[in-house]
Amino acid sequence: MFDGSFDEPGEARAADEAERLDGATRVFVSHRELLFSIVYNLLASVADTEDVLQETWLSWTSRLQRSDEAGHEEVQNPRAYLVRIAVNHALARRASITRRRETYVGPWLPEPLITEEMAAGPVSDTAERALRAESVSLAMLVVLETLTPLERAVFVLNEVFGYAHTEIADILKRSPSAVRQLAHRARGHVHARRPRYQTDPRVQAEVTERFIAAALGGDLSSLLEILAPDVTMWTDGGGKVRTAGLRPVAGREKVMRLLAGYANRAPHDLDIRYRPVNGDPSAVIFSAEAPYAVLVVDLEPTSDRVQGIYAVTNPDKLGSLNSDPDE
Q: Which CATH fold topology does 201-317 show?
């Protein structure tokens, strides 16, 4: 008579495997936010990041299965192992992303990521702190595109997530001295293009709202006050939005004319939501309840004038946005 125990070896093995899989899933889920943050900063694409996380999950479960076999040690530090696997999968994916960029129509901008409201007080979680850091702003991600994949990996792991050079050397399978050289080059390139400074989020939010009101209202006098003389505007339509420009527009007068044209052609049912995008107060715009554009402004370090405007209108990059601000 069956008494609830496993009489067959096969059933016992199946139960053990199910228990191990549940444990592996719990470990992976507990580190998923960190992995997503790191990989997104390396690839600047939500879809590619999700694919890399899937590859990381498969590598993780495969490694655990091998550890059950004779002669294979268990993973002593799952967090370190998962980060190493995720980073190397991301680096492998960079080649295909680069090929896609070569045929991309118009300026390329990172895929915008809606982040949580920036709370007051200290932030203990590494991934949450990284998402709030200035280094992952849309403007900074554009600068990171100028680095080599290895330089970018070293910069992100060291400057954003606080990994030591010796830890990064283990992740990338490079010597510590090589990692220090990569870090030095990357830091020099980034800081030459974007000096260190931290914009007050309240100021950026106020300027963003003023800019949107002036741009969509065709208020040229207000735009003249808001825009820096050397302002540059990037519009990423991916060749799928007729009004998107094919190259960045630089200079206050040219940008004002461009914005005036956009205002004249914009739909009449625009719904503007002010939400944090990549940690920055930004405008998320909907039309007929569908994502229409994400607009992020970058301010001068010494004033509240706008020096950079990043407009993402490519529908492929807006699919993850939610029209309900409460969801």
A: Nuclear Transport Factor 2; Chain: A, (3.10.450)
